[in-house]
Amino acid sequence: MVYSLPEEVLEHVFSFITSDKDRNVVSVVCKSWYEIERKCRRKVFIGNCYSVSPGIMIRRFPEVRSVELKGKPHFADFNLVPEGWGGYACSWIDKMSRAYPWLEEIRLKWMVVTDESLELISTSFKNYKVLVLASCEGFSTDGLSAIAANCRNLRELDLQESEVMDSSGHWLSHFPDTFTSLESLNISCLGSEVSFSALERLVARSPNLKTLRLNRAVPLGKLSTLLQQAPQLVELGTGAYLSGVRSDVYSALSKAFLGCKELKGLSGFWDVDPSYLPAFYSVCSRLTTLNLSYATIRSPDITKVISLCPNLQRLLVLDHIEDSGLNALALSCKNLQELRVFPSYLYVADANVTLTEQGLVSVSQGCSKLQSVLYFCHQMSNSALITIAKNRPNLTCFRLCIIEPRTPDYLTHEPLDIGFGAIVKHCKNLNRLSLSGLLTDRVFEYIGTHAKKLDMLSIAFAGDSDLGLHHVLSGCEILKKLEIRDCPFGDTALLANVAKLATMRSLWMSSCAVSIGACKILSRKMPMLNVEVTDENGTLDPKLDSCLVEKLYVYRTVAGPRSDMPGYIWTMDRDSANKI
Amino acid sequence: MTPLLDVEGDGPGNVSLMTSASTMESVFQSNPGLTERNYLGLSDCSSVDSSAGILEVKRSNLNLKATELRLGLPGSQSPGRDPDVDLASSVCLDEKPLFPLLPSQNIVVSGSKRGFSDTVDEGNWMFGSVASKSLVQGKFITDASANGKISSGTQPTMIRDATSKVVPQEQTHATYGASLNKVNTSNPPAAKAQVVGWPPVRSFRKNILATNSKNNDEVDGKPGPSALFVKVSMDGAPYLRKVDLRSYTTYQQLSSALEKMFSCFTIGQCGSQGASGRENLSESKLRDLLHGSEYVLTYEDKDGDWMLVGDVPWDLFIDSCKRLKIMKGSDAIGLAPRAMEKSKNRN
Fold it and tell me: How far, in Å, CA of A261 to CA of A233, rounded?
């Protein structure tokens, strides 16, 4: 007997299922579930905006309230994706403005957004609430003025690390006096000053404001004023953290911080004057997140701060913390889950900074809940990596960047294969891995064999032959994102694993050994992939199949080849061997 | 299944490497006829062809030499692949460095780093260890026999013993790595060739660090501050580039770097000439163009004015330059007098 629940009941049940992955699984159970699910899906996440067209999304999901899109490949963060590459949000926002009058949230990452699009957002959606533009570009404060002026119910405006043009502070004044719904504001990326009085008034009339991230230009002297208006803040990003020697500024700041009983996260701290640090000591015991990665403060100061934060879960810091600071971290912060250590000088080790592999080993030993690591350093050894792996099998994200490419184990001068091998062997839930140092094909053998939960892998200056790439593509069963630069990987591995590429979100290969001929073959064999070849230098001859491509970006799509590429990028034509 | 990695004992990796390495070496020497590198033939290649590692490639009449694993850059002088050639002699292939872009321009790669070609022979052994999973192993042997490339009698030995790399290769890597480190510490940062996008730090963060180090007092012994990226546009060019102003110390350096970057726009798309020949052609032609005042380099300063590059001392220029633009000479006529005035006013 076939028993099926009425549609309304199923819909109600589905409303409790919010994760995208679960929703996707629900939708393939049967046809009727697919239909019910698609009509009631509220949130859509599209990891590659070119994998699907806005039209397809709109047709399938008519009742969406929240859309998240990512555009450029991750390597765009490091200047590897040339200007003009694409990632335009324009057509998405256009179509959504007509199809989703009740859209509330748009989150974009690595996309190009224009002022016209921002204006359209501000006027098209009756109940617009959340705008997050992370690492985006193409817009100016004019677009922000439109958002401020028209979005009466805006809750969140977050401009994380976007490039905003012609910054002038007056856009903030466009928020009407009746506007009181703001909960989160992140303007930390803005270069120039914002009108402080407008900011102060805005903060004063936003009783629900929980997150406020200021830009560098907001002087320390004004911070206490803002904090007094918003003692309910949970996340605060300071501006520049210096003010000359001003005891009145210091005491006002100290008093203001005392009043912030809910504060859990601190960031900002550009240009820190260490004598002002004690002003926020009163909140340290409650802090769960601390981002000092722009603060060039040194050992005694930084160690003191850390020792006051026993509840710290997330720490971002410069290598000025040194091994000594990391030892202190390991002793004080037993709840630490995520550690990111950034380099203060990018090319050569600073003689005054002693940050080595030992710091990371200490933290791996002392912080039993550590799951996520991003660590820039100048030396590493296999034994340290093995120790870290054994200490912390619960690692889920391990990104190690030894700054000089191809650096071997500094003790044995061997490749770091067995060290990383230990990481993937012991950390069975590792879903993100970035490699560095001297590595042979061997490390990829280990990765292919052990890293079964790996979702994203970043490789640079590593490997000896196609075998390395083949190990990864054939062994990492759920790999979704693979980005490779300057490795001797080429045609053979790629062509031997074409089917794998259709199970992944994307593959990026730059300065490798892939020929245009192989790209043509790949494109012919796999019509559901866009095989995009970049030739910025103009040296690629599409008729000479042995020519190596500078950059290759392959991704699955149901939207066909894109048409918004600059002239130096070609999509391999499926039907013939000619470029489009 | 043989564990590929044993991390339990003290220095286990080294010990087991030495043991199996010597076993492998003897196998290596006793099988000079093993030349086939169709180790990936077990997946997508549908037809078996005796002379091609990449079968579809051959069908589309590609240059096999360029696409087979053993070679360096297309056009490099590697001998033809003859299956019956003694394995030992085939090791002496050209070791052209495969990657023109290296982290340090002071290292000569071809001598110390193993060329791509050399590793292919190792690759055969390596893959054998993966193929030790029984299912794959069977298929591997079958395909190989069908090819008639590898004498099947040698297969089991190869697969079973191939659990680690031959030690000499790692020593070569070690030498390379060690010499790399040595050279780096003796070079000042400015002299290093900076690899694009490395280390992988967001531009946003790089620029912040650059201005951070300007504000803080420099202690003696510290190396120079980090990158300062500005956008460079060119009239008529379809897209912008970004340059790190701190990676240059003179206007001449900046100028030649920009010449290289934008040469393709001035000259147009390439023909089928070799890459190096074309580069020389366009560089010199662009240099002529630039010096013949067809194009001039201008910059936007902190006040938003466009100035000619070259009028102020380099350090002052870096401090005030927000972005660069390569303009047609005719468009830049009005700039020169203002630049002079401005610097006069400043001084």
Answer: 8
User: Is A402 a residue whose pLDDT tops 80?
Assistant: yes
A230, two tokens? 């918003």
In one-letter notation, the amino acid at residue A46 is I
Contact between chains at A418 and B164 (C-beta distance less than 8 A): no
| In contact, B62 and B71? CB cutoff 8 Å | no
Nearest CA of chain B to the CA of A533: how many Å?
15
Q: B interface mutation test: which of A467, A473, A525, A545 has the most B CBs within 10 A?
A: A467
Q: Are A232 and A209 in contact, with CB atoms under 8 Å apart? A: yes
ipTM: 0.86
pLDDT, tens digit (0-9, with 9 covering 90-100), for A311-352: 999 999 999 999 999 999 999 999 999 999 999 876 556 667
CB contacts, 8 Å: A347 with chain B: 189, 192, 194, 223, 226
Dist CA A294 CA B216 (whole Å): 12
Check: pTM over 0.95? Answer yes or no.
no
Average pLDDT over residues B319-326: 85
Among B283, B243, B242, which Cα is nearest to B263's?
B283
* H-assigned helices in A455-490: 466-475
Cα(A222)–Cα(A230) distance, rounded to whole angstroms?
13
pLDDT band with cut points at 50, 70 and 90 for residue B191:
very low
CB A379 within 8 A of CB A355: no
Helix or strand holding residue A523 (H, E): helix A516-525
Q: Residue A321 and residue A327: Cα distance in Å, rounded?
A: 10
Chain B residues with CB-CB distance to A84 below 8 A: 238-240
Q: Give residues with Cβ within 8 angstroms of A451, minimum separation 6.
A: A424, A430, A433, A457, A475, A476
C-beta of residue A522 within 8 angstroms of C-beta of residue A529: yes
Please indicate if any CB of chain B lies within 8 Å of the CB of A425: yes
pLDDT in tens, B261-296: 776 655 443 333 333 333 444 445 545 545 555 678
Angle, alpha carbons B67-B71-B77 (nearest 5°) = 115
Does residue A246 have a pLDDT over 60?
Answer: yes
By mean pLDDT, which of A32-36, A356-360, B162-166, B224-228 is the weakest? B162-166
| Mean pLDDT along residues B245-250 | 82
Using CB atoms within 10 A of its CB, is residue B108 exposed (0-12), middle (13-18) or buried (19+)?
A: exposed
Q: Provide the H-helix boundaries in A320-381.
A: 322-332, 357-366
Helix (H) or strand (E) holding A67: strand A66-70
